[in-house]
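Q: Got a minute? One more chain.
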Amino acid sequence: MFPILQTERFLLREIVQEDRNRVFEGLSNPEVIKYYGVSYSTLEATQLQMEWFKDLFQNSRGIWWGICEPAKPQLLLGACGFNSWTQEHKRAELGYWLLPDYWRKGIMKECLPVIIRHAFLTMKIHRIEAMVETENENSMKLLESLRFQREGTLQDYEVKNGRFISLHYYARLGGAITP
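A: Always. Here it is, folded:
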């Protein structure tokens, strides 16, 4: 059963097929995908992402939540969660995105501690990792405010838009579960 989580202002729920338009709106928006590793140019292509969300949970390889307001549970604001979950090594990779209308409202700062706590206590994850493009100052500040430590930089790690990009590598260990 998919775990529904709540914060003071937000509901974190399963991402369902009815969210496809909002997922496409986010993952085709140049502002959102500027520092995000996945993008889609058509609504139809976004179906791959919808299947990915479902497959992660069904096959215990991760979990992503849709972020919405309790009064409007059908209106997706963004998403956050874990992928690359390696149960043997008790680690997973954190990811997140929001539609630009909801930026700078403290949404991720409120939602990420709840899923981090879920990862440490329920999923029994010991290490949460996050990779951030070196130019993404806001994401780095967010992770650091959540007590993630930068462990290093992966130089020229990926090719994006025809050029090499470097990624900062962050991690937080489960010994400190209080966000």
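A: The helical segments are 20-27, 30-33, 47-58, 107-121, 137-145.
Q: Perfect, thanks.
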